[in-house]
Structures are given as structure tokens and as C-alpha cells.
From TrEMBL:
This is Tricarballylate dehydrogenase. Residues 5-470 form the FAD-dependent oxidoreductase 2 FAD-binding domain. InterPro entries: FAD-dep_OxRdtase_2_FAD-bd, FAD-oxidoreductase_2, FAD/NAD-bd_sf, Succ_DH/fumarate_Rdtase_cat_sf. GO terms for molecular function: oxidoreductase activity. PANTHER family: FAD-DEPENDENT OXIDOREDUCTASE 2 FAD BINDING DOMAIN-CONTAINING PROTEIN, FUMARATE REDUCTASE. SUPFAM superfamilies: FAD/NAD(P)-binding domain, Succinate dehydrogenase/fumarate reductase flavoprotein, catalytic domain. Its cofactor is FAD. Keywords: FAD, Flavoprotein, Oxidoreductase. Gene3D superfamilies: FAD/NAD(P)-binding domain, Succinate dehydrogenase/fumarate reductase flavoprotein, catalytic domain.
């Protein structure tokens, strides 16, 4: 008789867990808190990009929806080795060694992508956001090359199709309210008074970023002031249930993915919009200009590294500024390089023909100090180095207290534009400790029988930041692991 598995949640990690369990011969019931329109967790809010280790284009071509795209002949994908992936993760570990979870993520990233491809999940090169044209070729940068067809919405749709094709069943409006524990083993879940028995339960229901109270109580700092850029459903219920029965917490309490977002966006990125448009409130082209706070000062090195490696930290940096906001300043030279979200119909910005006039329009900012900062920045730009967005170009500033290390161009071409931003929280990093088979561990490193976890529920994957695109890959890797483990009962 096949194992009966309950998966809590319906995002990328939950779907991968369900697909893997079905593939291993189990029967799977997926329970989703949201209605059908809001199902899919944070997955639908993403751009669908997935970071994984690969040697060269030969690893990518079998994953593509259109392997005959004529652009491929003039595309330089480069490679992204396991060693480079490890270095990128270590750069956000605050001096910590690679965790066991990070090692699993790296080692299983390409196999997970190939496995998804085998279930009909197809990908497209991220030409618009991850490549620049140079000498007639499309040059990819930052190690991030592929996104799911139709981005996060497409990823969810393709995974759901695979899940249902294999016989999986999903129930909507089915919020799990408790875990059933009998003789030390998880044997099912409650939905209110309803009892659903199972041989194993996989918690893949996200972090706690959508709960202002839990952000305040568990994270501290200014996190209760953050905009929530993802689903309203991720309120930490699964994490609280697991901890209540003895699960070991893992990771930093205040660790999270936070991104500069439109200051005037609604929480959950405007649920009146199609899910595919909600991501357009992010504002991550700061590397092409400068950011100013309420005092008129720059507060980060906007050109420290490719934005893949900085946006998750700079969201927090913006939130930590006076009033929890900043302004991103650009001139007309970079208009064609700004991502589509800057021309999004609901994007907020001000515009002027001079920097002086622009500074007067920066609501909440010391205009005189801002103009002085921009003037000093312009005077400090290194004119001897050519601007090249395809690499860390070394076009820096000289003599400023806070340098801009790359892509520093003078702001000298009107019209000038400024976009108000704040910090938007995407997902939390603190979760539970899991075994190599995805089983949830207690404080004595012993598996809690019948309980598994995946996705944002798994702690120890990210600490003080993350290289862009790793979140969905982590969901796929740990979802697949949990599904196999739950079906095997290990």
C-alpha cells in the first residue's frame, strides 16, 4: 500500500516535494491555505530566475523551451562552477563556513534543474535582465542565466501540471491549524476540527514575512516597517507548529531577503494586479545611479558588485535609513538600461531638467545637502575608465568618504529622474533544521518521525544575504529531497 503524504503549501518547494513523492510511489494530498487565485505562495511573485552550477552552455540547452532560438548562436553564457556558487554563498555568511544545507544546495542545483526539465518545466535565457549586448553578442553576467517560461507564474503552472499529471490532489482554502502527534510521531494534520491522517507531513508553507507581529517579535529592528512584497499567506504558521512539537530552529532570527521597492507600493504588491505584474514594484537598478537618504547622503556603495549580489542587502540598508526610505537618482544616459519596472504604469518618480530642481522635488530630503552630495559625486567620477555594464568595470569615484566602486557615471544628461524606495521583505531565512533526507530534527539532532520540511521552512541555507535566484533553486532542491525522504519514511 502506498504511503499517504500530506504537503502543506503549494509554492515551488511544495510542488517539488509533491512531484518527488508521487514519483516515488506515494499518494499526495496538497493542502493550500489560499484560494485558487492566491495559491502558489511566493513563487508567483518572482521573476522565475534560478541559480545553479553549470559548466557551460551544453548544460543549459536541454533545459530550454526553444533550443533553436537564433540568439543562442551569438550568446556567451559562460560557466558557473560549484566553486563559484560556494564563494558567492560564503560572501554572505558573515565569516561562517558553508553549512550542510548550502553544500546540498550547490551539489543538487543542476540535478534539480534537470529533474524539473524531465517533468516538463522549461526555461528561457534571461536576456532582458542578465545580459548586455557587447560587440554584437549577448554577454551574460553574474552567474544567473535561466528563468522559467512565463517567470514565477509559469513555474507554478508547469509544476502544478506535473503534480496533477502524476495523480497529486490539491485542496484550496485548506489552512492547516495543527500537527497531529501520536506516540512521538506526526501522523497527520488538523484543518480546524477536521482530521487528516498521513504517513508523513511535509511543511512547505513558507516563512513568516507576511506577519507584522512575528517580524516584530522574532526579528526586531525595523522589520515591522517593511513592505511585504510576496504572498499574504506566509505568516509563519508552519514554523510555529514545528517549533511547538520540538523542532530545532536553524539560521539567523533576523535573516531575510529584502529588496528596494517602490515606497508607495501596497503590501503584497497590489493583489488587484495579475500575479505576473506584482514583482514590478521592485527597484534594483541603483547600480546605474546613486541612492540618497533623508539627510541627502549616499549610504551604500551602489556599484559594490553586480546587483544579483547586493539587492537582498540593500533592501535592509534602505529600511535602516531615517524614515525608512531613500531616493534612487538617474540621468537620461541610462534610460535604456533601466529595467521594465521603472516604466511600470504604477511606478512613482519625479523628474526635472536640472539636478538642483530635482533635489527640490525629493520629498522628505534635505535638498541642499542632496545637491551637495550629487555635485561631489559628479566631481569624483573617474573619467579615465570606460563604462561597461557587462563586467565589474572599475569605473569608480575618487576621494569620496563612500566610494562607488563600479559603473560610476556623471549625472549630467537631463532629464533627471528620481524614484522613492523603501525596503520590501520577500522571505525569511530562519527555519528548522533538517536531515539529509529532509526530516525535521529536534534539539538533540534526532528526526521528528513523520515530519519533513522544504523551501523557506528550511533554515541554514542563507544567512546575511543571498546571490539572486538561489531561493527558487533552494525550494526545488529541498522540496525534492523532502518528497523522496517522506515517501521512503526516512
Amino acid at each position: 500500500m502506498s504511503k499517504q503524504i500530506v504537503v502543506v503549501g503549494s509554492g515551488n518547494a511544495a510542488m517539488c516535494a509533491g512531484i518527488a513523492a508521487l514519483e516515488a510511489g506515494a499518494s499526495v494530498l496538497m493542502l493550500e491555505k489560499a484560494d485558487q487565485d492566491l495559491a502558489g505562495g511566493n513563487t508567483k511573485y518572482t521573476a522565475g530566475a534560478m541559480r545553479f552550477a553549470y559548466d557551460n552552455a551544453d548544460d543549459l540547452l536541454p533545459l530550454l523551451k526553444d533550443p533553436n532560438d537564433p540568439r543562442l548562436a551569438v550568446t556567451d553564457f559562460g560557466g558557473y562552477t560549484k566553486a563559484k556558487f560556494a564563494d558567492d554563498l560564503l560572501g554572505f555568511n558573515g565569516g561562517r563556513a558553508l553549512s550542510d544545507e548550502q553544500k546540498r544546495l550547490i551539489d543538487q542545483s543542476l540535478p534539480a534543474m534537470q529533474w524539473l526539465g524531465g517533468h516538463g518545466v522549461k526555461f528561457e535565457p534571461i536576456y532582458a535582465r542578465q545580459s548586455f549586448e557587447k560587440d554584437g553578442r549577448h554577454v551574460f553576467w553574474g552567474g544567473l542565466t535561466l528563468a522559467a517560461e512565463n517567470e514565477g507564474v509559469g513555474l507554478f503552472d508547469m509544476e502544478l501540471a506535473a503534480f496533477e499529471r502524476l495523480g497529486g490532489v490539491i485542496r484550496y482554502d485548506a489552512a492547516v491549524t495543527g500537527l497531529i502527534v501520536e506516540y512521538g510521531q506526526v501522523t497527520g494534520v488538523n484543518i480546524g476540527e477536521e482530521v487528516i491522517k498521513a504517513d508523513a507531513v511535509i511543511l512547505a508553507c513558507g516563512g513568516f514575512e507576511a506577519s507584522k507581529a512575528r517580524r516584530r517579535d522574532w526579528m526586531g529592528g525595523h522589520w515591522d516597517k517593511a513592505k511585504v512584497r510576496g504572498t499574504p499567506m506566509n505568516t509563519g504558521d508552519g514554523l510555529a507548529m514545528a517549533i511547538e512539537i520540538g523542532a530545532q530552529k536553524n539560521g539567523l532570527d533576523d535573516g531575510c531577503h529584502a529588496t528596494p521597492m517602490d515606497l508607495h507600493m501596497p503590501d503584497y504588491a497590489n493583489l488587484d494586479l495579475p500575479a505576473s505584474e506584482r514583482k514590478n514594484y521592485r527597484k534594483i537598478c541603483y547600480f546605474l545611479g546613486v541612492m540618497l537618504n533623508a539627510d541627502g547622503d549616499r549610504f551604500v556603495d551602489e556599484g559594490e558588485n553586480f546587483r544579483n549580489y547586493t539587492y537582498a542587502q540593500f533592501g535592509k540598508a534602505v529600511l535602516d535609513q531615517p524614515g525608512h526610505f531613500a531616493w534612487q537618482i538617474f540621468d537620461a544616459k541610462v534610460d535604456e538600461l533601466l529595467y521594465a519596472e521603472y516604466s511600470f504604469h504604477d511606478a512613482h518618480y519625479v523628474q526635472a531638467e536640472t539636478l538642483e530642481a530635482l533635489c527640490e522635488k525629493l520629498d522628505g530630503v534635505d535638498a541642499k545637502a542632496a545637491l551637495n552630495t550629487l555635485t561631489a559625486y559628479n566631481d569624483a567620477v573617474n573619467a579615465d575608465v570606460a563604462f561597461d555594464p557587462t563586467k565589474l568595470d572599475g569605473k569608480d569615484t575618487r576621494g569620496l568618504p563612500l566610494a562607488k566602486s563600479n559603473w560610476a557615471q556623471r549625472l549630467d544628461t537631463p532629464p533627471f529622474k528620481a524614484y522613492p524606495v523603501t525596503g520590501g521583505i520577500t522571505f525569511t531565512y530562519c527555519g528548522v533544521k533538517v536531515s539529509e533526507s529532509g526530516a525535521v530534527l529536534d534539539d538533540h539532532e534526532k528526526p521528528i518521525a513523520g515530519l519533513f520540511a522544504a523551501g523557506e521552512m528550511v533554515g541554514g541555507v542563507f544567512y546575511e544575504g543571498y546571490p539572486g535566484g538561489s531561493g527558487l533553486t533552494s525550494g526545488a532542491v529541498f522540496g525534492r529531497i523532502a518528497g523522496v525522504g517522506a515517501a521512503a519514511g526516512v
